[in-house]
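Ticket #4471: complex job returned nothing on first submit. Input attached below:
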Amino acid sequence: MGKYTVALDCMGGDNAPIEPVKGAVMALKSDPDLNLILTGPEDEIRRIFNENGGGENADRVTFQNTTEVIETAEMPTKAIMKKKDSSLVVAMNLVKHDSADAFVSAGSTGAVLVGGQTIIGRIPGVKRAPLAPLIPTEKGVSLLIDCGANMDSKPINLLQFARMGSIYMNKIMKIDNPKVAIVNVGAEEEKGNMLVKETFPQLKALPGINFIGSIEARDITAGYADVIVCDAFVGNVILKMYEGVGITFFHLIKKAYLKNLKTKLGAALTISSLKEELKKFDPSKYGGAPMLGLKKLVVKTHGSSKAQEFSTSILQCKEFKEQKISETVAEMI
Amino acid sequence: MGKYTVALDCMGGDNAPIEPVKGAVMALKSDPDLNLILTGPEDEIRRIFNENGGGENADRVTFQNTTEVIETAEMPTKAIMKKKDSSLVVAMNLVKHDSADAFVSAGSTGAVLVGGQTIIGRIPGVKRAPLAPLIPTEKGVSLLIDCGANMDSKPINLLQFARMGSIYMNKIMKIDNPKVAIVNVGAEEEKGNMLVKETFPQLKALPGINFIGSIEARDITAGYADVIVCDAFVGNVILKMYEGVGITFFHLIKKAYLKNLKTKLGAALTISSLKEELKKFDPSKYGGAPMLGLKKLVVKTHGSSKAQEFSTSILQCKEFKEQKISETVAEMI
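Support reply: We reran it on our side without changes. The output follows.
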């Protein structure tokens, strides 16, 4: 496998800059083909890098000093326009100008999405670039496409999501003939809102994808489909229900475990096995979400990411480049 | 509290007619003010009723013979039009003609919704009659409005849902000044799809409700809002994510418990406490979902309901009549 370069926004996310930089050190250690450009206040980033054992791989790192930071509360379009020397915009421009193959950030989702579309730009023919996280299921993972900032999709958008999602699951996740389903309120073709009713027959007729029909939200976690197509509003609701219901279940389990002496003893015997199982079901553990349909790879990592997730997100860029995902999308769209 | 009569569709749901009839017997035993009309094949219904100890309260029951059944796979509009002698249509007509105060069924959601609108009819001024289940949260329950069959809402629909939901939570669930929120993809006012962006300022300006702004799907289970307003497509996704993620968590817990001898022992010590906690979080346990905005009360009970849920659904009709919910909605809309 060949060399590749990732531009990492070291000021994005709740744990910046410490965790992104620690993640960079981890990734460099595990893959000798990786080169990194770290954007952020150079002195601070260098210090954290060296304090965490990055020194031995410093020859594969460029430190790119930046003076501004985009906060999550800022209006994305305005922030991208104004903060030209932010760690996010500088990293994106490095990708745009071919100094890096991919961009990774845990910063403001809105800013990543706007930056991806306006700085790096869409592949010609792609109408909208969706954000497509991998979500855990009982069978493995599925790709939920779109969870981005572009609401009120049209059928053509969903058709392109289906196609791009299929390419991703096939090339990156190595799933043969990935099953594509559209989120709906029932299994029957005549069900749904206007968007789904209009899109359904077009998906059915679309060559090159394995469309299996509607999927009800109840069946998503069971893993019936590999590519789950929906409008970004619905995708956001699905992703956040994963989180919300998950958190509530943790609270309920905790309450049940702390009820009395007997349950506390039982808890001690089961807790590590339970944690291990439940961890598999945390959507934030599956690296970053790729933004598909752009000229270069943009990966949005969960805001609360720690070093391990940054490292995973960085390393997944290799396969994306090797498999020529953007080139394949360009040919097929 | 006064007398009231409920028309029960004994052929609706996965467990019909046994569970609806057993539920009827339970409800009659627990409330002497209740009168029931049971629709379905009379001989069979009578037999189940008597076999399950209904005999002592037979004086408060009318058996209304019907010869047809609407299946869940049928097209709702066609089924309602054609099957005039179905248990569902006959029961609805009894409510329409004032022989009963309320209708309860676990049958096809589509048929209940269509029948509610076309047979019983909306309160003048109400544009759409939403289906509004109570959903469990960490703090108690919230009303999710709309989960019905009417997709592609307009702002006026959501405004009416907010108002009807507030009345319900105040009068029936006894919540002072219930907090109303709209489902959105972020907390900020400028976020959302077209529908939410257009509705938000109108909800803010609507007198007589306690609008607290947007709620992200992640925060629904935490119980931040009492009335959760959304389009029916989104409501359906939320409700079914509750189910799906819940089922998956059960599977994961089971797997963790069965891992080895130690975890099996721990499971034995914690299982009853855990079941007790998790049961609270099953949306199907909260009786039936009322369809609001109709001239009379229509309650849709979960398809898999057992006797206990039928009984709860029947008994909740009393409060609805006592509190004059339909009359209050008619005045306020």
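Chain A touches chain B through 60 residues (CB under 8 Å). Closing as resolved unless it happens again.
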